[in-house]
Every structure is written in structure tokens, then in C-alpha cells.
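chain and backbone:
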Amino acid sequence: MSGDDLPRDSGISRRRLLAGAAAGVVAVTGLAAGGGALAAPGDKKAKPQPKKGGAKGKPRPGKDTPIERLAFGACLYNSARGQILDVIREARPDFMLWMGDNIYADTEDMAEMARKYAVLGDNPRFRKLWKACPSMAMWDDHDFGKNNAGREYPRKKESKQLFLDFWKVRRTDIRRRRDGIYIARTFGPPGKDLQLILLDGRTFRTSRYAGRKGRGTMLGDAQWGWLERTLREPATIRLLCSGIQVVNTDYDRWESWGDFPHERERLFRTIREARAEGVVILSGDMHHAELSRDPGALGGYDAWDLTAAGLDQHEKEQWANARRVGDVYNEPGGKFGMVRFDWGDDPTVHLEVRDRKGEVVIAKSLARSELRQ
């Protein structure tokens, strides 16, 4: 490992992060606007980025510059290696979404969690990807703190601080002032505007047992209210990002929104009542990749859920999914998702899963005209 900064260009040093975690407090210092830092505070539209380059020197996404290629992935178990990160960078995305289980902390020891973030931050592959394009991150259970954990996890506030500091979230960002890490950003001009909605399914979530009895919550009252307002904001395409699968409900042992059927229906109802069009779901958690569809769930159009998880993991087991479209992809060597956008008269979303060689193994194209009520 080389260097003391985390990630490179960050205003938070590796030594300070570790020392702060050991003391139970991580100091927040000035955050440099490098790599994946976003300029916009709060939930407003992102401000225009400096005219310096992402892929092939094109301007970074902002209010006036649309996203054309967005990569995403989840579940990076070996934070020191992750060869798939090189493949993602070589695919030249304009933007990278880290969909949770970005590290495997699984601890209540914040010094240990900080050390695991340090391993990822010191990874040269991570550094190169971080510099190549802007990033946003959400968490799932393993980087929240514990397998399958929800609001009962006792160190969620400390874990949140480590998360925000590592991912260079600005001091003025609204996530510094409210519970949870949910956030929305919109990029691109009208007609080419993409809204990214990152949900927090951990901070407020009650027990799965209560959920299966038709009680409890996934998001909590404050986040539900925020989501209702966010879905009413203008956008041509919306990527609704969940740490766990939304559409598929057939698993018994893995988490999904199917553990909270009343909340899953509330999510779909909220989208319908907001008359939010152009919604496509991205999800992580599972160590395989697949595309799921719930016909008519969003009113006049279908709920599509692209799962692309297991950046360096796969499972030998196969899972039932009555809503799966096409084949499951579950091969060793890693995988990631890519969403490409054609911003024409009828904007089209191209959903892809790519393998360790960068080759497309799952593909589906959806025109904006197919995603309306």
C-alpha cells in the first residue's frame, strides 16, 4: 500500500481516519473537489462541473452535461484486489455507482471498519477508477455494519460518519445533517435529465420478522416523505437504486423487498401516485446478475429491476425467480452493470451486465415511451 490519503486527493488522511475511529470520532476536514466529489450540496440539481475530463476528456456530468454511460456494481469482498475495477474503468463510464457492500466490515469496532475502508482506499485499481469518473455510493448491510442489519445496529451513527468521510461527501451536504444516507441527484439538461435516487434500506428498517407479518418499515417516515417529493421532480429517466432486490420476491434466505410486501406495494404505489415516469430499478446484494420484470406494477408500465452484484463474488447455487427475464449470469471472475443512454426524440435506456472481460452477457433496451403511465 502506498500513500496516506483516502482516496487520493481527499482532505481526510488515512492516519486521521484510523486515529479518529479508534477514538470514536472521525474529524471532518475540508473536502477537495477531486475524483468523484460532487459539487452540489443537498438534494438540488448538480452544479456544472469544471470543464475537465472524464472519459476521453469529455466534461464531467453536471446540470448542462448529460450522463451517457453509467457503471454500477456491488459486493466487493476483497477490497485489496478487485480486478473487475480495471475492466469497469476500461469501459469508460461517465459515472460510477457503488451499490453497497463496498467493503465487508461486519463489525461494531469502528477502528476495524476504518481499516477496511483504508484497504479499499489504498487499492490502486480503486484509485484509478475514482480518478477516471465521478462516483456516488450507497450502503448495504455489510458496509452498514452487520449482515442483514437494520435500525437495531448500535453503531449506525459512527458507521455513517465513516461512510460519508470515506466517500468525500461535502460538509454542506444534507446527509451530514439528517439521519440516513439517502440522496438524489439530477444530471443533464431538460430532455436529457437523469435523476439518480439512492435509497437507504438499513438505517430505518425494522425486523424482517415484522415485515413478513405486514408490519414495520423499510425506509422510515422521513425517507418515505422525501421519496414522494423527489419523484415529483422533473426528470426524463429515473434510476431508483436499492441495495437489495425490489421486483423479485422468490428468495427465502436472501433479503429482498419481498420481506416487506406492504412496503414493496407502497413503493410501487408511491411511484404511481407521483405519476413518475421513466423509472428503472437498479439493485445489488445478490452475488449473481439478472433482470426482473413485474408487468404493470408502475401503473401503465412495467417495473424493471437490473441486478448486477458480485464485483468479485459468485455463488454456485441457483435461485428461483418467476419474474426473471432471460438467463441468470453467475460465473466466477466478477461482473458489473452498465446503463447507456441514447438521448434522442424517444430517449432509450440500454441495460447491460458485463463479465470480467467487459463483454455483454445480459442486455435489454427500454424506450422512454415504454416507461410512461
